[in-house]
Amino acid sequence: MEEEIWGKIEKSNPSLQSLASIRALIINPSTSKHIISAVFQTLTQYLHQEQETQNLENQIQNQNQNQNQLHHYLKLLCDIATHHHEFTHTVFNTVRSFAFSSVNSQFKIKCLSVLLTIAEHDVNLVSAITEIDENVIIKLCFDSSVSVRSWILRNVFRFGIGDEILVQVLLGFVNDAYPYVRVIALDGLVKLSKSVVEIKNGGLIREGYDRAVDLFVDSNACVRAAAIRVVCEWGQMLPESGVEVEEQDWFNSVFVQLCSMVRDMSMEVRNEAFVSLGKIKMVSEDILLQTLSKKVLGNLKERKFPGKISKKFLDLPASNAAGAFVHGLEDEFYEVRRSACSSLGMLMAFSVRFANDALNLLMDMLNDHSMVVRLQTLETMYQMVTCDRLKVQEAHMHMFLGTLVDASTLIRCAARKVLRLLKLPFMKIFKSSINGLLTNLETYPEDEADIFSVLFYMGRNHGSFAVSFVTEVSQEIEPSFEGELKFDNPRVAAILVLAISAPLTHERLACSIPTKVFSYAIPFVGRIAFSLRDSVTQDTLLAYLYKFSRITHIPGTESSIEDDPSPVAGGKLPLHNIDEIFNRVLPLQQISNEASEDQFQKDLRDIRQTTFPPTHQRKVIFTDEEAEKSITLILKMVAATWQLIKSGLIDEVQKTLRSCREELATVVVNSNRLNGFLAFASQYIQVVQHLAEIWIHFLPLRKFQYIKTGMLDHLLEKLDDNLRKLRYEFSGLNKEEELHILELVLLACVLRLSRMEICCNVNTMKRVRSTISHIQLLCDDLQIEISEFAGELAKSLNESGYRDDDALSPQLSFKRLLDLFSLKDMVFNGILKHIHAELDVPGNDSENPFPFVSGLPAGVTFQLTLFNITENDRLWLKMSVQEGDLCQYLFLDLNHIKGYDEINKVTLSVPFYNTPKAASFVLRALVVKECSSEDVGQMARGFGGPKGELIVISNITKIYMVAAKTTT
């Protein structure tokens, strides 16, 4: 097929259609190397011919057409280099020779562009880029063509040219006749700012600064905006470069220089001026205060600053800063107002007085008609509160609290973010803030979780205020006449959150709150704990509530819960699984940073002594080490269920395994090793759950004899799939752990073979043989005896197990083999890493489908994140229209996606070839890993795809496609 297509292309004259066909061959992963080599030779020949034609004087009128052809040929060569790595260096050297031999500067930069693209895909070629003669590059900088100069100046940093030469070249082009060349040169100077400091050449910095100041009056707005960026960066470098200037005065001079541009006629320039103002590292308080007042302050009326370094007589009046931020916050364009708000926040740290005066302006911005500006204003206020510059007054609160009922979710969330950290000076302000949050809760119930969290922090930060407020509204949280709490009232829950947070600042405040309030909060514990999940677990919160509600009676120790008429408010509460509570409880320092470790241990002992019987006093887990022990204990419990499985107590087993999985879900770790351990443990529990479900079918005289064999087959397939994941989805398994998994694989094979309906499964027999061989090798390496189960199976097969048709002999006793198997404890000694991936297609959903043309390839751009991938892993991207259809596979070359880090992100553009004849379809994509096992399994269906068994290591992503409308 490929030979036929290429034959037709060779016979035809080069055209856009033939070039498109050539590209289809190049990007098709199944195209042979022979065809790619022929394509390469043909394209090289085309380039030679076109280049020779271009050099003929009588063909000058066709130069534009030739340039277009040359561009297409170079692009195809680039595709060969990036899609076929064995040709990368050959293509690179060929294109480089074209670049050096050509006399046409346009063609040269196209060649250089291809070389840079190839080097991005092969890091080994980066050094070859830097070795290109710098004289060739600098000569192109002075080319008569504007497009050539622009491209070279934009990419000049990627070639091996010294920083000092680069600075001089760029300075030479800041006065170029074309504005966009001037902009590129100025932006290049900003990019080189750090290198310039290292050069320590004060003369260059002085020259660059002065030239940028001159461009403040350029006729093009884009040039003036770029000049502002240079003045901001290079102006602040002058004190570090050895130039004799007074540091404080010079920073003020740069600041005032930038203020002179905030009234420019161009929105772009004004916006850039305010962005740059926020980057200044040092400003005097009097200059900052001047920016908030349009009236020139008395001490600045006669003050002057140097406008340039080389011309100190050019004085810059300090009055240029007058009302700069007032103008910015009143600007007609929201972009300028947003930048002005942002810069205000960055400058607040320099002066408390400036922050206080600026707050009056910011409060007015909370009424801005643009949501973007209001959001930036709240972000600025958050910056102020984090550096202790936000001193709110009673007059401010009405406007600020109005944002809590804003129609925008983002605005409400940003306002609560500020309120969470705000220190309120008076009870009246605190009360209005709490009422504002409660109004927010009533208006937007969906904000409940975040509101509870804010109330919790406010109660901690204002303990005495919180107690006073709760006391005033205590009647609202009292049970009804029938003794029932208002469980459906969010306001009641919110007040309880505030009440229970107060004692965390000072424990003495707990005496001011009735103990029954803490017991009222217990029925809400799940709801409250969800809101405080970033600070405290549900079990910690429950233990805390028990302590302050003074609950001293545990049902089952002296009397039962039924004996107490008021189990919620009276002091008795049914507790379930108390061991679980104290095994997962976190330090109370997570709730209150002021509490010490000793105090925490004392509080914990008090809780245990007054609340729980001595038999439930067990150690609390704090570290990753303890977390690892907890996971190990869970796995021991899983292994202990085997005897229950063999006894037929499947319901009890399932309950135990579910509890183990829930317990496992509560373990939170940070290390990559323990994350892999957690994932493996969860997968291992699933395997044991499947074994329990399968074992039902092998128990005598059960009620489940009516279950069809098809269901058993389905369970066995699930078991095989999970075992495959255990073997190949984790790296770092040592020999003992691998041996444990292989015995489970052998057990799965025996279970499959022991059913009469499937006893002739040839693939299963081959798997049994290879697994036993592997087990024997591992046992020899570990110098241990093979298990009785595996040894008996190997012995039985050797004596009477095999027949000519690869089926098992009927004499083999499966019942004896199953009785011999015993599930051992899973013990880990190595470092496990979980191999998985995340797949996403941005910008696509059912409402925003991608267009396609039936029968033609459809391009899809995937964002792929790979975790813990090694150089030995073979990964494929699998795509299909419907499950069971012929699949298209793309091999993910790990060398191509650069590296084997713990987290690796890559963007892939992939053509899907099998587009159906339909108005629309849904493409399903996922990442699979090819197993490197010698076992024979079901082959993957698809052309050019994997040959062995696969495991899915990513989410299934749906790509919605719709037929493109065609015009006739």
Automatic annotation (TrEMBL):
Domain of life: Eukaryota
GO biological processes: intercellular transport
SUPFAM superfamilies in UniProt: ARM repeat
Record keyword Nucleus present: yes
Localization per Swiss-Prot or TrEMBL: Nucleus
Alphabetized UniProt keyword annotations: Nucleus
A single Gene Ontology CC term: nucleus
Residues of the Integrator complex subunit 4/Protein SIEL C-terminal Ig-like domain: 841-912
Xref: Pfam families: INTS4_C (PF25458)
Name this protein carries in UniProt: Integrator complex subunit 4/Protein SIEL C-terminal Ig-like domain-containing protein
Species in which this protein is naturally found: Papaver nudicaule
Organism classification: Eukaryota, Viridiplantae, Streptophyta, Embryophyta, Tracheophyta
